[in-house]
Design brief:
15% helix, eight-stranded antiparallel beta barrel, mainly beta, 10 strands, 2 helices
Length: 192
């Protein structure tokens, strides 16, 4: 009887280890995701805008983080600078042409762990109808059971830069900077 109990216990531990090692797909939460970008305005100020999350998923296995994948869609209708006139200007054809290009997408193509919960994520960013690779420096904030939802959850921050002219958005360069700084924070949950 004792041998049977030990075998059952060992089997349960083995099943738990396999379950933990499997990749988990998280649905990103639009209420806890911010995609911020900023630029230099003639050197006088550094305005910041936000694009709200439309939808996104992150697949992550702590045992094999190099196999992680992220896919995100950001609707241009969510563009917010907190200045209505600037929102309208950025949506016009001389900048983002939101009517013609209503969304931004990002799909990872490579994830490189660089130690201590930090990752270098390369992906294809599509803005203004142009796709170009962009590298993000990502930090894993936390993985675990969310105290409010009870669901397995994950959170990341990421930073990066891009040149808007690479995407065909070059109005007023260099007075309005070509380089755009990105800061992203996100969290997501797995299905129960």
């Amino acid at each position: 009887m004792r041998t049977f109990k030990v075998l059952v216990f060992a089997g349960l531990l083995g099943a738990a280890a396999v379950a933990q090692a499997a990749p988990v797909t998280y649905t990103l939460d639009p209420h806890h995701t911010m995609v911020l970008f900023s630029w230099s305005h003639f050197g006088f100020s550094h305005p910041t805008a936000e694009l709200g999350l439309g939808q996104g998923t992150l697949t992550f296995d702590p045992q094999h983080p190099e196999q992680a994948k992220v896919e995100v869609t950001l609707p241009m209708s969510g563009l917010d600078t907190h200045v209505p006139a600037l929102n309208e200007h950025l949506a016009k054809p001389d900048f983002l042409d939101s009517a013609k290009y209503p969304q931004v997408t990002y799909r990872s193509t490579k994830v490189e762990p660089v130690g201590n919960g930090h990752f270098r994520v390369t992906g294809d960013l599509t803005v203004h109808g142009v796709t170009h690779p962009v590298v993000l420096d990502a930090t894993l904030n936390k993985v675990g059971k969310h105290p409010m939802s009870g669901k397995q959850s994950i959170g990341f921050d990421a930073t990066g830069t891009l040149k808007r002219s690479d995407f065909g958005v070059s109005a007023y360069v260099p007075n309005v900077s070509d380089e755009i700084s990105l800061h992203i924070t996100t969290e997501g949950s797995a299905a129960k």
